[in-house]
Amino acid sequence: MTQVLAQDSIGLSAVTLDRDLQQILVYRYRVIIESGFGEQDLPVTQTRKVARLAARRNDWKPVTDVAHFSVASLQPLDNLNIDAYGCKCTLEFEAEAVLEAAVDNDREAIERLLNQDLYRAACQLAQKRDAKGGKSLKACRYAGWAEIEETQPSERVSARSEYLELFKTLRLTPEVLPDGHVILGLSVRHKLCARDGITLDWVIKKRPQWMKDIQRVRHRYTDQGKAAAVADLHGVAEGKTADSLVPGTVQSIYEYHKARGRVPPVESNSIRNSQVVRVSYGNKVQYEHLAGLLEPMFDFETLQKIDSPLLNRIARDLKWPVMDRLKASAEMVKGLVLPGFVARVVPLKSSERAVDNLRPRFDLRFHNGRTGETEKDVLNCKAFRGMTRTQVVCLAVGTKTSPEALSTHFQKLQSACQQLSAEPLPTWRGVTSVKPLKNAFELDARLSKTPPENTLLVIAIDKSIDKAEIRDVAFRHKLACQFMLTDHYAKTYSPNYYANLAAGVFSKGGGLICALGEMPGEVDLFIGLDMGGTSQRAPGSAFLFTRNGAQLGWQLADLQSGERLGDEALASLLHKSIQEYARHHDGDVPRRITLHRDGRFFESLDVIQAVERQYDLSISVLEVIKSGAPIIFRKYRHAGKALYKNPEVGDVYRYAGLDELILATYSGQELGAWGDKVSVRPLRLRKRYGDETLETLAQQVLLLSRIHGASLYRHPRLPVTTHHADRFATLRQSCSLEALSHMDRTCPVYL
């Protein structure tokens, strides 16, 4: 464990309140449902809907559920009869009650009330700033956090775009600790938004070629006081117009939205003449909607496809140094007062028990007992284990590059692979005599004519080629492949480029670049578990690694919906993982397993406990949450002035009383020239189950973040377990699941 330097102090980008919330007086009401609520909805869903409607009916006083058909408010409610959005219910006052922060369910209720009050405070702050002529703000509320957004485009980024603007946005995430102490995590970023007047209908008429790349849309209106809804886009509804009837009604699509106040009078003609599109909301049911009432959502991936010059132009300005980020956050929350809790926002002071550095010794093992600290040490130490494929076949598909240039690329790649290995490489074919194939059909014919076994393909392509189509052909022939682009800028093809490419070839070819030395804890098997999305049916997946970092393979469960694995799917993945471990260890099952859940663990702990009993083993469950965590930093003094910099590897901020912490897995120094121009993005780790300590689990994450398998010069931010889950999710979006099902589950085909 590394000691924090005396002149440095670790801090969290967060504020607190000038009071604690150890005990909160609330007013409790019984809910009497009359009509308009779906019988299929769970009681908790119905009760939370009532709470939201009750808050709206009572000037947005914070209201939340505390039990089935029972809600609590911070202040007495004046209007107890609710009739809105087709829902009718009555609230009946029961009694005053006290919520205790030390009680888990009560603390969660306090956090929900706090989040609602944060939204009210943000609204009041926006009004106050407007009255004083300051920067104009607006507030938004989400499930779990509130946001403050500047209404004028950010002065940090000059987009100079006819369709896109960027706005400075601050997320405030409330956390109530068991002792009543409050942490309001601050995360400032730029939100990419369509300019005012840029609707999906504008895209269809002015930029129709973009439609295939725009995946999501946002409502241009809000309902029930919630943030504007986001939907998945499924394309234009052919043959439909705004006058087409809503299925099952006698009302047109246009009249349906107009009756709900969603059509601005000044836009009525344009919206009536807009296209109809199909959208869905987190499930497979598709609805018809008016493109004029939707705005396209632009993210970095979408911009890369539709307007890469714009993305390249703004990318540099989107990077914020730590000091700038902290100053912007402080400015945006200045003067924030919570009306319901009667509390002011004040700076957060880090206690000694909250901060620490947990960095273990990074001991990577290479060939013949040699050691190093990073994967690139393989260039000197040689790989821990050589490739197991019997041959590597080099091909080119659809590229305009000459056969001579292709041969040069392949020879340099083969040489780079040999530099990694202390053992002779498998046979390489197609290196010197390259005969490019025209397309995927010719590739399929070639592989069908001479089907290679136990082979890795290296496929050279141009950026214009449909890589997914080529990859699906290879997968259907049960062949892993490593792609190589031949139309980068000439300066890209440096020795480092070929070394990185060689690492991917080496790992997919069965080699192991390095192993981990001493691993904290008694764990035998790590499993990275991922659901893979909330808006589409996707397979659950598990990625298996032994305690020394060697990958045992990956497993799939049946297609799931939502972000929760079903009980049968979770049990199946665990059984397959344990059996795969036993297959490699003379039939012995692991005694201790650490399960890394990519994101929140909504699955059943009953399944975990049943597997523990069946195999007589123990499992620890750790949530690895990669987004939304407030940054951590180091504060130091220079020439009598307080300055801020990025954290060191292993710096943590603990949430006292909870099995939860914020962890930096890399430092600014590791980013080279960019190290002082960007803010390190930490992970949020939350222990959900098991007897392993959170500190040990965090140290395991740090060690597992040092290995990648296909990148020698930058290790992942995530542990390799969930990093591979991320890469698999990216592959799955463009890959046929049928083709993927043919692949060897021991090969990291997604790298």
Automatic annotation (TrEMBL):
GO terms for molecular function: nucleic acid binding. Gene3D superfamilies: 2.170.260.50, Ribonuclease H-like superfamily/Ribonuclease H (3.30.420.10). Coiled coil: none annotated. InterPro entries: Ago_PAZ, Piwi, RNaseH-like_sf, RNaseH_sf. Pfam families: PAZ_3, Piwi. Residues 482-731 form the Piwi domain. Belongs to the argonaute family. Long pAgo subfamily. This is Protein argonaute. The lineage of its organism: Bacteria, Pseudomonadati, Pseudomonadota, Gammaproteobacteria, Oceanospirillales.
